Amino acid sequence: MVHLLELAVTFIERLENHLETIRNIPHLDENLKKMSKALAQMDILVTETEELAENILKWQEQQKEVSSCIPKILAEENYLHKHDAIMPSLPFTSKVHIQTVNAK
Fold it and tell me: Can you quote a single GO CC term (predicted)?
């Protein structure tokens, strides 16, 4: 009798586990849909992250180029300022002014 009672308890426990599994089957389709949506969103985020990383690397390269040009630009400005002080400024004449003078 004790042995039959143990078998009955084991059977009921297993039956409860199987019933729980069967109850979750309708939710399985819903859970798969949720997982599929989450996977699609993750794929979009990965793509956006990759694009962002590429843009950051491009920006870094541009900053390096700009930084390397600054000393050249400053040297050219200093050179021009030194020569502006030496060279006299020439009067500005436009083609229109010359044409009107020649027409007289």
Answer: centrosome
- The token duo for 42 is 């993750």
Per-residue pLDDT of 44-83, as tens digits, reads 999 999 999 999 999 999 999 888 888 888 888 877 777 6
Q: In Å, how far are 4, 46, 58, 70 from 51, measured between CA atoms?
A: 66, 9, 11, 29
Amino acid at 69: C
How far apart are alpha carbons 34 and 11 in whole angstroms? 34
Rounded Cα distance between 20 and 28, Å, is 12
At residue 71, φ and ψ (nearest 5 deg) are -60, -40
**What value, to the nearest 5°, has the Cα angle with vertex 87 and ends 84 and 93?**
95
Query: Could you state, in order of their start, the residue ranges of all structural domains in the chain?
Result: 14-83
